[in-house]
Amino acid sequence: MRAVVQRVSRASVSVDGQITGEIGVGLLILICAMEGDTEATADTMAAKIAKLRIFKDAAGKMNLSIKDIAGSALIVSQFTLAADLRGNRPGFSTAAKPDEGQRLYDHFTAWMQAAGIPTATGIFGADMQVSLTNDGPVTIWLDL
Q: Which end of the chain is least crowded, N or C, by CB within 10 Å?
């Protein structure tokens, strides 16, 4: 799996002009299932993100996780994270097939919810518009 995680003060995703997910302080998680990923891969990625200490503590140090601050997660599927850029036109053949990608996206989201992290989502496979206020800015790229 690949993910881009952004610390946000607010974020939303909309489809056809309608907001499908919206959060305040927390994480915007752009997530892509790759060929060969399993539920165990999704679990490992979710656990890693849930434990990331990228929120400021009282001393201003990045020392707190999303759970520590009672933040929320906006989880958006983004197959373009699988881009192969050897040429000028990206290829996406290393992304999981759509059915498997959606299953792992749903599994990842369910893991975050079960961990007690309030979640909002986009719509898998839809043309989405994402709006955010990146706090910091803090942006982390993860690849498992």
A: C
